[in-house]
Specification:
About 40% of the residues lie in helices and about 15% in strands. By secondary structure, the chain is α+β, with helices and mostly antiparallel strands. The strands form 9 sheets. It has a 7-stranded mixed β-sheet with strand order 5-6-7-4-3-18-17. A 6-stranded mixed β-sheet has the order 8-9-11-12-16-13. A 4-stranded antiparallel β-sheet has the order 20-21-22-23, with helices on one face. α8 packs antiparallel against α16, α9 packs antiparallel against α10 and α18 packs antiparallel against α20. The N terminus is likely disordered.
Length: about 800
């Protein structure tokens, strides 16, 4: 009996075995799998359990800024089943992660140049320990693996027109990055090296094989020195295969090819490398080819991820039928619940469980739209382009046809994006027509808001980038503990406050009345995000009278000498810290995870938690009086554990540019300035509002430009566009306008900006010679922006006049 095998040894597409399956033991199947011959069915599942291959690739994509380029990359990589794909020349700015770590990148701060990153599979995301975005040429990711953790570094080396100094800086930074990695990690360095190592491995046998490609150059010599110093092996050169599976870059004229995209592996793990080769069939409109390496390594999940409940449609409580059903379920849960616990926390927990279980039974889930905007037609064009790439070298005509279809795919993706935006605009107009302004403006923000990448990697106190998720959570805990540490004798302050407090009212009730709870529930705002208990104000309002009475029984009003409870919630760069001083614990939420800690120092039972900074403004006509008040504030703050931030404290004299003598805090001088921004407004020494008005116009102009898609849409009525201008643009322009002193030139600037906005949405160009009066008539505007400002100023004046003197 013979076995016929067809196909070749490939990474993404498995060969087919025809005929009876040979009888092999477990070890025999492992050896077969190591050579790339994989079977199907139950036997294949057992093989994958025995050895779980890790597929790592690298690809210079030239850019991922084009519309649809990332989605096309995802589709292109699907048949190759790559776990970790390193990317070069992404041309994304900043650093961050996308879709929970699916894409991680590090680029230039502002310029769309260079940039490196990773595209991770689901199991790679689950195994991700952390990452370090070093710079636009170097990024590190670490994964939980077996038998050891795996560190993968993606690089983009300087090109041939770079100076030797730039090349040495690149390698120096790369060596420093490797030195910072744990010694036991399996180290893999991949990327576009812009270096040719050649075919001659004489004297370099430890770092390269004898199956390389091309001629060595000076940059290749430098790469070999780097590999030798760091004990790395160039896996591309180890395997005998045809040239089309070796070269990784083709010149624009299609006549020259080189091997410059390489995979370097820690030499002690060279036996784990099964194969490393180029895939010319993969296409992303780049002059570089996909390189993939297959290793006998395994990824492990970092931790068992918590299962989050699907989001529920809270707006459904606005429906009378749903609201009644929810109320009945809550009352039923409360009636069936055991007697109320003694502890307050247990009572609240019981109420929360009753509400949450009712939510799960009654409210529908929110259907999240994850459908990509790129169409199937564009994907089919991309498939055709991929097929034409394989034949592009047959003739010049084939090469021209391939370049034409590349442009066709690019334009098709751009058209798909524009059509998707128009569909979004139609939905905005539909929501606006149904008076569902909240949903409409939410969709507007999704289209026009500036994209801010999420980044979980942070630095420690010494400026070192933390790459481990556990270390990141620990650092946030340390940071929050430092914010709320008592650095002074606060007991004295508390005693003083207790002494000056008014005497207690003996008749004061220590229990909150039901009427107070009902009124508080009635005033709860809708549309607010819930806390960690996932209970929203709408749920409590819809729970009915019985739920409110149960809340009344669970809340105690403590007297002046009772046990005080304080809940403080602050948001900083996507990290939420919820501090509960009643039980002395803190929950720090970052990157979707919650880390609890003791808020007080467990080694010191008397330690307390207080803040470090506050915002205080002092106004005096005399410098000596101002210095005295500043000294008293400083002394009182230090007694309470507060410190004045000297770097952020400054003085300004209204009516004169310089101060007679600088003020001091703890022996350090305070900077005197002629202008500064306070509460969002620019204040100047001469009270000139012109600078602030120009600043507000610039801000509003940026907002106006961000709504380009809305203004260009033919599916949104002019009335809706005007409403968006008044709510989203004018609100930015007129911030604190009640305090402005307007001159004629300021009024002219404001009116010009207003007309510019209206002409933009009406698509009126300057050469059409349409007067401002006609524009005002078309938009139905009965008062101009200056008149609106005067009305606001008079309204504030009336409010001040009605205020009582205190």
């Amino acid at each position: 009996m013979t076995t016929k095998q067809t196909g070749t040894h490939q990474l993404g597409r498995r060969p087919v075995i025809q005929g009876p399956r040979p009888q092999l033991g477990k070890r025999g199947w492992v050896e077969k799998l190591a050579t790339g011959v994989e079977g199907k069915g139950e036997g294949e599942k057992k093989l994958k359990a025995a050895i779980d291959f890790l597929k790592i690739g690298t690809w210079n994509v030239r850019t991922l800024r084009s519309p649809g380029k990332l989605e096309l990359l995802r589709k292109e990589m699907t048949p190759y089943e790559c776990d970790i794909l390193g990317l070069a020349e992404m041309r994304w700015t900043g650093v961050g992660e996308l879709n929970g770590g699916e894409v991680i990148w590090s680029g230039e701060e502002k310029n769309h140049m260079r940039g490196v990153g990773f595209l991770l599979s689901k199991r790679a995301k689950d195994a991700l320990l952390g990452y370090n975005p070093v710079n636009s040429r170097n990024i590190v990711t670490r994964f939980n693996g077996a038998p050891l953790n795996i560190a993968v570094i993606q690089v983009y080396a300087p090109t041939s027109d770079s100076t030797e100094e730039e090349v040495e800086t690149f390698y120096g930074q790369l060596e420093h990055t490797i030195e910072e990695l744990p010694k036991k990690d399996v180290k893999i360095v991949i990327g576009d090296w812009n270096a040719k190592v050649g075919t001659d491995n004489l004297g370099w046998e430890q770092v390269m094989g004898c199956h390389s490609y091309g001629q060595r150059n000076n940059r290749g010599e430098r790469l070999l020195e780097f590999a030798s110093k760091n004990d790395l092996l160039i896996t591309n050169t180890r395997f005998q295969q045809k040239d089309s599976r070796k070269w990784t870059w083709m010149a624009p004229d299609g006549k020259y090819t080189n091997m410059i995209d390489l995979v370097l592996v820690d030499r002690r793990w060279k036996t784990a490398v099964c194969v490393c080769r180029t895939f010319q069939g993969a296409d992303i409109s780049s002059d570089h080819s996909l390189v993939m390496c297959k290793l006998k390594l395994r990824l492990k999940r970092t931790t068992r991820q918590q299962r989050h409940e699907p989001r529920r449609n809270i707006d459904a409580l606005g429906n009378a039928t749903v609201r009644a059903a929810f109320k009945d379920k809550v009352e039923q849960r409360l009636a069936n619940s055991p007697s109320q616990p003694v502890e307050l926390n247990d009572r609240v927990r019981q109420l929360n469980e009753a509400i949450q279980s009712s939510v799960r039974e009654v409210l529908p889930t929110v259907c999240k739209q994850n459908k990509p905007w790129i169409t199937e037609h564009t994907l089919q064009l991309a498939k055709t382009k991929r097929e034409m790439k394989e034949r592009r070298q047959e003739s010049e005509e084939r090469e021209k046809e391939y370049r034409v279809v590349c442009n066709v795919v690019r334009k098709a993706a751009k058209t798909d994006k524009e059509e998707w935006l128009q569909r979004q605009c139609q939905e905005i107009e539909r929501l606006a027509g149904d008076n569902r302004s909240r949903e409409a403006y939410k969709l507007i923000n999704q289209i026009n808001r500036a994209w801010k990448p999420k980044q979980s990697a942070i630095e420690d106190k010494n400026g070192k980038m933390l790459q481990d998720k556990a270390e990141v959570k620990k650092r946030w805990t340390e940071y929050c503990r430092g914010l709320y540490t008592d650095r002074a004798n606060s007991d004295t302050v508390i005693t003083e406050l207790d002494q000056i407090s008014p005497p207690p009212n003996e008749d004061e009730m220590h229990y909150i009345l039901y009427e107070e709870v009902a009124e508080a529930v009635k005033r709860l705002k809708k549309g607010k995000s819930p806390g960690i208990d996932d209970i929203t104000g709408e749920m409590i309002q819809a729970g009915g009278e019985k739920l409110q009475k149960r809340y009344t029984q669970s809340v105690i009003r403590y007297g002046r000498k009772g046990e005080y409870q304080r809940n403080v919630q602050s948001i900083d760069d996507g990290v939420t810290g919820e501090i509960e001083s009643a039980d002395g614990t803190t929950s720090v939420r970052g990157a979707g995870r919650i880390q609890e800690r003791q808020m007080h120092d467990t080694s010191n039972p008397d330690s307390k938690a207080y803040g470090r900074e506050d915002d205080i403004d002092l106004l005096e006509e005399d410098r000596v009086e101002l210095q005295g008040n500043l000294d008293r504030i400083n002394e009182a703050g230090e007694a309470a554990g507060l410190q004045i931030n000297i770097e952020k404290t400054m003085t300004m004299v209204f009516g004169q540019e310089d101060i007679e003598e600088e003020l001091e805090i703890r022996g350090r001088s305070i900077e005197n300035v002629t202008e500064f921004v306070y509460l969002g407004s620019l204040l100047t020494w001469d009270n000139d509002c012109s600078k602030e008005i120009k600043r507000r116009i610039a801000r509003a102009t940026g907002v106006m430009a961000g709504f380009k898609t809305i203004w260009n849409s033919k599916h949104i009525r002019t009335e809706t566009k005007i409403s968006i201008i008044r709510t989203c643009v004018m609100s930015v322009l007129l911030y604190a306008c009640e305090t402005w002193t307007l001159r004629k030139k300021d009024k002219d600037l404001l009116r010009a900006f207003e007309m510019k906005c209206y002409r933009r949405i009406l698509h009126i160009h300057w050469h059409q010679k349409i007067t401002n009066v006609e524009v005002q008539r078309r938009v139905g505007n009965t008062r101009n922006i200056v008149q609106l400002i005067m009305e606001r100023k008079l309204s504030l004046f009336g409010l001040i006049c009605r205020m009582e003197d205190k």
